[in-house]
Write a structure and sequence with these properties.
Strand order of the largest sheet: 1-2
Family: Belongs to the YSL (TC 2.A.67.2) family.
Keywords: Membrane, Transmembrane, Transmembrane helix, Transport
Strand content: under 5%
Mean pLDDT: 79
Number of domains: 1
Subcellular location: Membrane
Number of helices: 29
Number of strands: 2
InterPro entries: OPT (IPR004813), YSL-like (IPR045035)
Pfam families: OPT
Helix content: 55-70%
Radius of gyration: 27 Å
Distance between the termini: 78 Å
Structural class: mainly alpha
Length: 688
């Protein structure tokens, strides 16, 4: 091999050979010569290290706010129409980041030609736009105008039950906006004190937030800017990969590049836990329970009735998630108290403690890479203090306790107080689970609130309305918690200030509280919203009212043994977490705790099915085999490839939504039938 020379000596030859700069290469053959190149990889933050990070005030610009308002209106309109038709809505996080970049970049390029550009467009400003639009879109997702609020109307009540005046409320634009303004900001203050723990200490992945950050970071490099310029049960998404029987139990590969990418980002054990939960529920438990139809529950019930098999799916999942979340909340509280006691008892050794702490911190800093140190520095610099967040939550909760009973007399102040005492635990559970798997289960916690408060208030006292209103309170807090953490993860990876992110969240929430009811009101007055035979059937309205009716009938209306199973799964989640922490503390040689599944991840497929867990495990396998071939390259480029898979499918959601709004369907539909069903169809067609 030739003598080792400096990398610049071969810069031209590397370029001709197609070798990019900024990565470690060894023993490459360039023009017939073996050359060893010793170059440290150029990480994301090293690319931006010479660029000044603007202060949090400069990250919030007028052009960013104007762009956010325009995009928020567009996305609110799309989401509202989709929620009133199919109820199936794609994620717009990535689209918000891309369109925000495209809009502002076009404007900046235009005024730059005239020499009027005063402040360059940064990735932090891009993140502020994305955060604001997602916050506004989140209100459209969870404002209840197509679900729990619509379920209060007489249109839905006439379909689901007898028309009892105390359980029906006429929809009005005034009280809908007032209700949303009252409940939508509380969750923002609730989770702020936990951002450091979730993102830095627990290092939760929040895959959508991570993918969006990779996209935004790539836009603001020269290459990235060039790159950015450039029917139901039908098709391969419903391909019965493992046969029709497995497909009927939601066990199939649906060719979703999003969840393959999420699987590449999530830790291996998260994906294994999801697959284990899928096998346990859809492969074993549900088929066995379905054999008890007619014994444990009525065999004539529809598949989505909580009186039947769906009751087991929903409540066993919620029980295990609550067990997991409550354990972590209790663990954090106990650990905090122990640390306080230890510090108090070791005051005399304070200097030693400080020196030891400093040494540990120094060692930890040495082990961290450049990107992590830089991100942590900027993320912790502008943290919102707890003395602002906690009183903010208390004040807003107190306001809600006074206002909500005025809007819904069926809910008393003490009902709302209990809801706000429950909310922190449920919000933590949802944010933690979302950080692991990218699934927000806010609607599940809302359904649980419907059951609890409907049963508590009772049918004759307006329990249906009380349950539906409490659903809105819980859902707004819980969904905001996970959305906030996703956005903070994006901000962490793009060096956006937590303060500018929080301001953007508040501004976006305010926009959403105005835009989403106004857009809904346009549809509500112009069309027969809620009519099952019309163009806007709003399928979730009757579903949520049905759950409220189930709640007023009491826990006894649940299918047989459902409550007992829920208790056992709740205890199992506690025990699994306890065993994991015991192994972490006392068994350090083999680190067996790494192979103990997560109860939260086991529970998620109980309700949703196993299809996405298969996608995610395929993502893990891709990363595993890639790492076996080239570990360094897999570590460096794996997140970028995963982000591309997630972003590609997410961006397709925008034109797909536009096609849906236009009422356009694919000209060909491919379905898979059993041989017997196919023969019956052939016989019918032959007869015709």
């Amino acid at each position: 091999m030739e003598r080792r020379r400096h990398e610049h000596d071969f810069e031209e030859e590397w370029r001709e050979a197609g070798i990019s700069r900024g990565y470690s290469y060894t023993d490459y053959n360039v023009n017939g010569r073996n050359i060893e190149r010793i170059v440290e990889p150029e990480t994301v933050e090293q690319v931006f290290k010479n660029l000044e990070v603007p202060s949090w005030r400069k990250q919030i610009t007028i052009r960013a706010m104007v762009t956010s308002i325009v995009l928020s209106f567009v996305f609110n309109f799309v989401i509202c129409k989709l929620s009133l038709t199919t109820g199936i809505i794609p994620s717009f996080n990535v689209a918000a980041g891309l369109l925000g970049f495209a809009f502002v970049k076009a404007w900046v390029s235009l005024i730059e030609k005239f020499g009027l550009l005063k402040q360059p467009f940064t990735r932090q400003e891009n993140t502020v736009i994305q955060t604001c639009v997602v916050a506004a879109s989140g209100i459209a997702f969870n404002n209840g105008t197509s679900s729990y609020l619509l379920a209060m109307s007489s249109i839905v009540a006439d379909q689901a039950d007898r028309d009892i005046p105390t359980n029906v409320k006429s929809l009005s634009l005034g009280w809908i906006i007032g209700f949303l303004l009252t409940v939508s900001f509380v969750g923002l203050f609730l989770m702020v004190p936990l951002t450091e723990m979730m993102i830095i200490k627990y290092k939760l992945t929040y895959p959508t937030g991570t993918a969006t950050a990779y996209l935004i970071n790539s836009f603001h490099t020269p290459r990235g800017a060039k790159l950015a310029g450039s029917g139901s049960d039908c098709g391969f998404s419903s391909f019965p990969t493992f046969g029709l029987q497995a497909y009927s139990h939601r066990f199939y590969f649906d060719f979703s590049s999003t969840y393959v990418g999420v699987g590449m980002i999530c830790p291996y054990m998260v994906n294994v836990s999801l697959l284990l939960g899928s096998i346990l529920s859809w492969g074993i438990m549900w088929p066995l329970i379905e054999k008890k139809a007619g014994i444990w529950y009525s065999a004539d019930l529809p598949a989505n009735s909580l009186h039947g098999i769906q009751g087991y799916r929903v409540f066993l999942a919620i029980a295990m998630m609550l067990g997991d979340g409550l354990y972590h909340v209790a663990y954090i509280m106990v650990k905090t108290m122990v640390n306080i006691i230890q510090q108090h008892s070791m005051k005399r050794k304070e200097a030693t403690v400080i020196n030891t702490h400093f040494s540990n911190q120094t060692l930890e800093s040495m082990l961290e890479n450049f990107d992590e140190r830089r991100r942590k520095e900027f993320f912790l610099k502008d943290q919102i203090p707890s003395w602002v967040a906690i009183p903010g939550y208390i004040c807003l909760a107190g306001l809600s306790i006074g206002v909500i009973p005025v809007i819904f007399p069926q809910l008393k102040p003490y009902h709302v107080l209990v809801a706000y005492l429950m909310a922190p635990i449920l919000a933590f559970c949802n944010a933690y689970g979302c950080g692991l798997t990218d699934w927000s289960l806010a609607s599940n916690y809302g359904k649980m609130a419907i059951m609890v408060f409907s049963s508590w208030v009772g049918l004759e006292n307006g329990g249906v309305l009380a349950g539906l209103a409490s659903c809105g309170v819980i859902m707004s807090i819980v969904s905001t918690a996970s959305d906030l953490m996703q956005d903070f993860k994006t901000g962490y990876l793009t060096l956006a200030s937590p303060r500018s992110m929080f301001f953007s969240q508040v501004f976006g929430t305010a926009i959403g509280c105005l835009f989403s009811p106004l857009i809904f009101w346009f549809f509500y007055k112009a069309y027969s919203v809620g009519d099952p035979t019309g163009s806007y059937p709003a399928p979730y309205g009757p579903m949520y009212r049905g759950m409220a009716l189930l709640g007023v009938e009491g826990v006894a209306s649940l299918p047989k043994n459902c409550l007992e199973f829920a208790i056992w799964f709740f205890v199992a989640a506690l025990l699994i977490n306890l065993i994991t922490h015991l192994f972490q503390r006392y068994e350090t040689r083999y680190r067996i705790y790494r192979f103990i599944p997560s109860p939260m991840c086991i529970a998620i497929p109980f309700y949703l099915g196993g299809y996405f867990s298969i996608d995610m495990c395929i993502g893990s396998l891709i990363l595993l085999f890639w790492g076996m071939k080239n570990k360094q390259m897999a570590n460096d480029f794996g997140p970028a490839v995963a982000s591309g898979l997630i972003c590609g499918e997410s961006l397709w959601g925008v034109p797909a939504a536009m096609l849906s709004l236009a009422g356009l369907n694919a000209p060909i539909c491919m379905k898979f039938l059993s041989a017997s069903t196919n023969n019956k169809i052939d016989a019918i067609l032959s007869g015709l």
